[in-house]
Amino acid sequence: MEYARLEHTQIDLRVHEKDECQIPEACTIHHRTDHHMRSFKQFYRFDRGIMERICTHGIGHPDPDDISIIRKVDDGVHNCDGCCFRFATDEEYNDAKNQVE
Q: Among 67, 37, 39, which residue's Cα sits nearest to residue 51?
């Protein structure tokens, strides 16, 4: 085990070793993706065993890089204020629309 600093905090959390990541393409500690909540503080929910991102309104949103969310072990239900939604870009919208047509 090693310690890692949660993003945008002064909290050090005991975590798995980097070479033991279960899914190397996304990990809330070692392989963070470029999702739209990266500027939010990280907070580990010991009661649920998931990583959250705390928005500027103080709401905890499940971190998209959390393995429990990716593998749907946790349903991600939370008191949402909409900050976790990433709206599609025009390009993404048009690509999806073209696939349906």
A: 67
